[in-house]
Specification:
This protein is mainly alpha-helical and 194 residues long. Helices cover 73% and strands 0% of the residues.
Length: 194
């Protein structure tokens, strides 16, 4: 998929400025793919470049949804690089203006960033707050983040149940080799009864 995206991006770079929004979407998608492939260090400059470009063009056009999507991507990069405090700042700073699946994505980012800092109790409390329905691409993400918080608190039975809910959601919407499915299976192995 990455090779096809590279070709698409090269083609979009040749189009007039009016097509820049498509180019930014393609570059953002490339960053997501790099994260999914376990290459967050390569995704970071791509996500940063998209956020910078959007910041420069916000006065020209309404790009808030694409900007929030880029910020969620940047937060995922930061979590993958172990920079959870920065990811928390992104989530808390932009969650109030988000709606729909973008709010769901920022909410999951907040949960992940808190657990990544060892603040599992806070992550668990946040997981209980009302959250919009996630997009199919984010299936199981909220449940996984909740399961990780429960695991961090040593509540293995509850973590196992939440991880199973996450796996069920993923099986409905995601490919069996999706990175999230692998994370859930690893967690299930950790919390398996002795």
């Amino acid at each position: 998929m990455l090779a096809e995206l590279e070709g698409l991006i090269t083609g979009l770079e040749q189009l007039p400025v009016a097509s820049r929004r498509l180019l930014l979407k393609a570059r953002l998608l490339r960053a997501w793919v790099l994260i999914d492939e376990g290459r967050p260090a390569e995704a970071e400059p791509e996500a940063e470049a998209v956020v910078r470009a959007l910041t420069r063009t916000m006065y020209v056009t309404d790009v808030w949804e694409l900007e929030l999507s880029a910020l969620v991507c940047m937060g995922d990069v930061l979590c993958a690089l172990g920079r959870h405090e920065e990811a928390e700042t992104i989530a808390r700073g932009h969650l109030p203006r988000a709606e729909g699946d973008l709010a769901a994505g920022l909410h999951v980012l907040l949960l992940r960033s808190l657990s990544g800092q060892g603040r599992h109790e806070e992550a668990l409390a946040e997981s209980g707050r009302p959250c919009p329905e996630p997009s199919p691409a984010d299936a199981g993400a909220h449940e996984l983040a909740t399961a990780l918080a429960l695991h961090g608190l040593g509540r293995h039975d509850a973590a196992r149940e939440e991880a199973r809910r996450a796996l069920t959601a993923c099986e409905r919407h995601l490919h069996p080799r999706h990175a999230r499915v692998g994370e859930i299976r690893e967690l299930l192995a950790l919390v398996a009864p002795a």
